[in-house]
C-alpha cells in the first residue's frame, strides 16, 4: 500500500479550505486543518488554546512546538494510516522540517507519496474575500457573501446551524496574516519545488474550475 500525503500551500482565503474539505470527502482521507484544530482548542479553553489565542488574534503564527505537537498527535491516529490531507501546516521552513521528522517516525514501514499543492492566486482579491467569509458554527461549512452566499441569511444550508464571522477575518488582522504569509510561508514554494514535490494550480476562478484543476494534479 502507498500512503497518500497531501499538504496545501497558499495565502489566506485562497480557497484551500473549501477545496481540501471536498477533496477529503472525495478521497476518503481525513481533512486536517490546523486553523480549525487551534480554534477548537480555544473554544475548549485548553492550555494550548489559551496560548494560541494570543498569536491568532494578532495574525501571527502560533509557536512551532505547540502546533507541531497537535499535528503529530493527529497524524498518529488510525484514520491517517492510508493518507491525509493537511491544510495549514506547514507554514514555515521550521514547520516543514518538523513535518519531515513526524512523517519519518510515523511511516517507518510504509511507502509514502508526498505532494505539496500550491494555490497560485492573484492576491489583490483576497482581502475582500476574507471580510465576506462566514462559516457554520456547527458543521464548519464555509460560505462567502460574494460568491457562495447561504440561501437564508446567517443560516447554514447544510445543517441549519448559525453562521459566524471569524474574529481574525477583519481587514486589520487579515493584513497581518498576509504579511506573515509572505515572510514565513511563501518560501515553502521554493523549498518544495527543490524537493520535486510541488504541484502548482491556478486558483483564480470559480470553485468548480479550481476543483477540476485540483483533480487534474491529484491524478
Ligand atoms: P487559518 O484558519 O488557516 O487561516 O489559520 C488561522 C490562524 O491560526 C493563523 O493566522 C495562525 O495564527 C494560526 N495557525 C494556523 N495554522 C498554523 C500553523 N501551521 N502554524 C502556526 N500558526 C497557525
Question: Mind explaining what this structure looks like?
Answer:
The protein has 219 residues and is of the alpha/beta class. The chain has a single domain (2-122, 185-218), classed as P-loop containing nucleotide triphosphate hydrolases (Rossmann fold), CATH 3.40.50. Helices cover 45% and strands 18% of the residues. It has nine helices and eight strands. The chain has helices at residues 16-27, 34-43, 47-56, 64-75, 93-106, 126-131, 171-185, 187-194, 207-218, and strands at residues 2-9, 31-33, 83-87, 111-120, 133-136, 142-144, 163-164, 198-202. The strands form two sheets. A five-stranded parallel β-sheet has the order 2-3-1-4-8, with helices on both faces. A three-stranded antiparallel β-sheet has the order 6-5-7. Helix 2 (34-43) packs across helix 3 and helix 4 (64-75) runs parallel beside helix 5 (93-106). The longest helix is centred in the last third of the chain and has 15 residues, at 171-185. It is globular and about 50 Å long. The model has no long low-confidence stretch (mean pLDDT 96). Adenosine monophosphate binds next to helix 2 and helix 3.
Shape: globular
CATH superfamily: P-loop containing nucleotide triphosphate hydrolases
Order of adjacent strands in the largest pleated sheet: 2-3-1-4-8
Q: How many β-strand stretches? A: 8
Cofactors and ligands: adenosine monophosphate
CATH topology tier name: Rossmann fold
Order of helices and strands: EHEHHHEHEHEEEHHEH
CATH architecture name: 3-Layer(aba) Sandwich
The amount of helix comes to 40-55%
Question: Which percent range describes the beta-strand content?
Answer: 15-25%
Radius of gyration: 17 Å
Give the total of domains. Answer: 1
What's the number of helices? 9
Mean pLDDT: 96
Biggest sheet features: 5 strands, parallel
Distance between the termini: 17 Å
As residue ranges, the low-confidence spans are none
